[in-house]
Amino acid sequence: MDLIFGEKRYRPYIRMLYDIKECVYCKDWLRQAENVPLYYMYKDISLTEDDKKKILANDLRYDITIIPPRSLGSEYVKTAGHYHPINQKNNQKKGLSYTEVYEVIDGKAHFLFQKGIDNLEDVVLIEAERGDKVIIPPGYGHITINPSKNVLKMANWVSRNFSAIYDPIKKMGGGAYYEMIDGIIQNENYGKVPELRIIEPKEYPEFGLTKKTGLYRLIDDLELLKFLNYPEYFEEIWLNFF
């Protein structure tokens, strides 16, 4: 399932069912399930070599992820989920983790955010559709769910200076909530969990993030994405972000 993007053909990194087996709610179903592909990640892509140079110069990465519709037993298909580390080089005093921004190119996405690891402070679900932009602010882990019968295609900009942290969500058997085909249920492995807040996506014109502007078009002004590598410069924005 290669992707033609600009001048190149990109091979995907494929996340298989067994790669996220610890995070699947339906364990009885899982024991009988084949190890099928769940989603396809095309990382570090660009339309042209000039674009690639700009992206590298700004320590960024542009990715596309495709999540076909599928059920994991009675649960909607989802990503493994992860947290972002603190930027130790720039953030030692602030303690802010790297951020990220997503765009829904096609389909529908539910982004599950949870703040904290051992003691959750906040859990939010953003219901996003084509053209919507969603920022992962500092301190939040996140999982993406495809809750529809259509293919979900999304893009993201992210710093290229870190590796995602998967173990906390994996250890807890998934996120704080599971989105089942017949509703949302709490993950009892967490014990006390904040009530889930469901909110709509917003625009962030200060970052060039509007519904009418495609995410890749920011290649012409990557300074707008400075918050991805330097979240501490925008500390006031993260206060009560959701």
What global shape is seen?
Answer: globular
Q: Count the strands? A: 16
Query: Within the largest sheet, what's the order of strands?
Result: 3-4-5-13-8-11
Query: How can the largest sheet be summarized?
Result: 6 strands, antiparallel
Measured as a percent range, the helix fraction is 10-25%
Tell me the quaternary state. single chain
**Mean pLDDT rating:** 95
**Structure class:** mainly beta
H/E series: EEEHEHEEEHEEEEEEHEEEH
Binned strand content: 25-35%
Low-confidence stretches: none
Supply Rg: 17 Å
Helical segment count: 5
Distance between the termini: 36 Å
Architecture overview:
By secondary structure, this protein is mainly beta. Helices cover 12% and strands 33% of the residues. The chain has helices at residues 27-32, 49-57, 88-91, 167-171, 235-238; strands spanning 3-5, 8-10, 13-16, 37-42, 60-67, 71-72, 75-76, 100-106, 108-115, 122-129, 133-136, 140-145, 152-159, 177-180, 183-186, 197-199. The strands form 5 sheets. It has a 6-stranded antiparallel β-sheet. The longest helix has 9 residues, at 49-57. The N and C termini lie far apart (36 Å). The model has no long low-confidence stretch (mean pLDDT 95).
